[in-house]
Design a protein that fits this description.
By secondary structure, the chain is α+β, with helices and mostly antiparallel strands. Among the domains are: 163 residues, no CATH class; 105 residues, Leucine-rich Repeat Variant (Alpha Horseshoe). The chain is built from 18 helices and 10 strands. It has a 4-stranded antiparallel β-sheet with strand order 1-2-7-4, sandwiched between helices. It is 42% helix and 10% strand. The structure holds cobalamin and iron/sulfur cluster (2 copies). One iron/sulfur cluster binds next to helix 9 and helix 11. One iron/sulfur cluster (SF4) binds next to helix 8.
């Protein structure tokens, strides 16, 4: 019997049973939320277009390149009928805003405290895909974790996993938002789940806490202001206006989720791949890390994505905000670093931590400086103490 006929003659009871079997297999692999969405975005597609036209994507040009696909999953998998949506808890440790008081420690977002989730979830999702292929022979499927051209949050909302909160993350009543999303697209037609409803109510804690006022209106994020964009996605110089607000955050930002009342229901993950592995990261140690030590220390960690240059850029900013004069000698030392991005941010940090006498020290160190960004930072420090 051909594929089309086989699927057509499979009665809905049989289909539901097989779907339940797929769900429990996914649960056995660590997925803790599951639902089915129709491959239609509704208003989310238009909102995404508007968001791009407002330039809220910053330098994330891949979002723009994939605009049409993100608005229409049929361009991602022709003939797609259902999108199976999954969530995976990454809540590795309880966290409150007191992390800001430990200014000598670099703060890393909870999601990045262990292995890179792309590396963990993709093979698991492929096992679920194989199970679907086994149960529905001949069906077509495609798996995505984060990086695919899909609007994962609106799809997951439709699949009933949660609603998009005012902070723009997906969250679930009685569960919170500390989870990743992933999907399997298929040409199989399954009954869709009931979409999740919004339970933000009159709350606006996430909007008020945001250090850079990146949530410019409820449900709308200007990425260019979001610390998670500035210290992960942005590859170059971090605009001066946000550096103080970045504080000691060296990889991502959790604030809008920390204060969300629904996250008081979050339950810690017992998944060894997501339990906290990253040790405390002392800023003074990090600023002195060489290329080889960086590779060994952050192999397999999401932090590896921003490379040594991105991390030390962020560490320099955090040291500039630390108020710790002991950071001055190591920062002077990195003015010799071969990476201009690191030198530029070290100049700023020295200006924050020192008095006027630092100017001649920096000038002497950077006597042969050619890089425009570094020279611009130097000019700023000179002007500051003039
Ligand atoms: C680009 C991106 C970012 C950008 C932009 C963030 C954003 N809000 O979209 C930056 C770099 C800032 C970022 C940061 C983070 N990210 Co990110 N990111 C993505 C990515 C790759 C694409 C998201 C996207 O398309 N954004 C475009 C905009 C338009 O989407 P949106 O903000 O949701 O816009 C909708 C709403 O604003 C809504 N809307 C607009 N107006 C209105 C008005 C009303 C009345 C209503 C109801 C709705 C509404 O409609 C829009 C369209 O749906 C997804 C993975 C994926 N493929 O989807 C991960 C993803 C969203 N990120 C994720 C995570 C974990 C994070 C961080 C928490 C990491 C961290 N701790 O640092 C932060 C959170 C910051 C925040 N407050 O959102 C997870 C979120 C999981 C979850 N539970 O929601 C995802 C899904 C990755 C994954 N597979 O798990 N991220
Ligand atoms: S992640 Fe941080 S900077 Fe970004 S919106 Fe949330 S609180 Fe604001
Ligand atoms: S903090 Fe309040 S407004 Fe923000 S997402 Fe959570 S419930 Fe919604």
């Amino acid at each position: 019997m051909g594929r089309i006929n086989f699927l057509k003659f499979m009665n809905s009871k049989e289909k539901k049973e097989k779907l339940a079997c797929i769900k429990s297999f996914a649960e056995s692999l660590g997925f803790d939320g599951f639902g089915v969405a129709r491959p239609e975005l509704g208003p989310a597609g238009e909102r995404f277009g508007k968001w791009l036209s407002d330039d809220y994507d910053g330098e994330m040009s891949y979002l723009r390149r994939g605009e049409e696909k993100r608005k229409n999953p049929n361009l991602v998998l022709e003939g797609v009928e259902s999108i199976l949506c999954f969530s995976t808890n990454y809540f590795a440790m309880a966290k409150d805003m007191s992390y800001l008081d430990h200014r000598e420690i670099g703060d890393v977002s909870i999601y990045a405290l262990n292995k890179d989730y792309h590396d963990v979830i993709t093979p698991r999702l492929k096992r679920v895909e194989a199970k679907i292929q086994e149960k529905f022979e001949g069906c077509r499927t495609r798996v995505y974790v984060d990086t695919g051209p899909l609007l994962e949050k609106p799809l997951a909302q439709q699949a009933g996993l949660g609603w998009i909160g005012k902070h723009t993350n997906l969250l679930t009543a009685g569960k919170g938002s500390w989870y990743f999303l992933s999907e399997i697209l298929t040409d199989l037609s399954f009954p869709p789940s009931a979409p999740a409803e919004d339970h933000c109510g009159t709350c606006r804690s996430c909007i008020d806490i945001c250090p850079t006022k990146a949530i410019i209106a409820p449900y709308v994020l200007d990425s260019r202001r979001c610390i998670s964009y500035l210290n992960i996605e942005l590859k170059g110089v971090i605009p001066v206006e946000y550096r103080k607000a970045i504080g000691n955050r060296i990889y991502g930002c959790d604030d809008c989720q920390i204060v969300c009342p629904w996250n008081s229901y979050a339950v810690k993950t017992d998944d060894p791949d997501f339990e906290k592995k990253q040790d405390t990261l002392k800023l003074i140690d990090l600023i002195q890390i060489d290329g080889e030590t960086f590779r060994q220390r952050f192999k397999g960690s999401p932090i590896n994505r921003i490379k040594r240059r991105g991390l030390l850029r962020n560490v320099a900013i955090a040291l500039g905000n630390s108020g710790n004069p002991q950071a001055i000698p190591p920062l002077i030392k990195v003015l010799d670093d071969e990476e201009p991005l690191i030198r530029a941010h070290a100049v700023w940090a020295l200006g924050e931590l020192s008095g006027p006498n630092i100017v001649s020290i920096i000038q002497e160190k950077l006597g042969n400086e050619q890089d425009d960004n570094v020279l611009e930072e130097l000019e700023r420090v000179v002007a500051r103490f003039a």
